[in-house]
Amino acid sequence: MPGNPRECRAHALECMELARRARTPEHKQLLTGLAQSWMHFAAGIERAQVLWVNMTSAASLPQHQ
Fold first, then answer.
1. Is 14 within the bounds of a domain?
2. How many domains does the chain have?
3. Which domain holds residue 37?
4. CB neighbours of 34 closer than 8 A, spacing ≥ 6?
5. pTM of the full predicted structure?
6. Burial class (CB in 10 A: 0-12, 13-18, 19+), 47
7. Is residue 1 predicted with pLDDT exceeding 70?
8. 28 pLDDT band (50/70/90 cuts)?
């Protein structure tokens, strides 16, 4: 499973291209939904990365007593 937002977006683009060429409305809808899922996954990874950076930055600050 990819953990890189760029990879996720590449998968989303691939799904959209496949959806564009789909022969049935059902396949088009399925592939469009998969593309949206990949985009949401990419955004979630980015949010997690921001949280991780914030947490590790805060942990490295000197503690005041």
1. yes
2. 1
3. 5-55
4. 12, 15
5. 0.78
6. exposed
7. no
8. very high
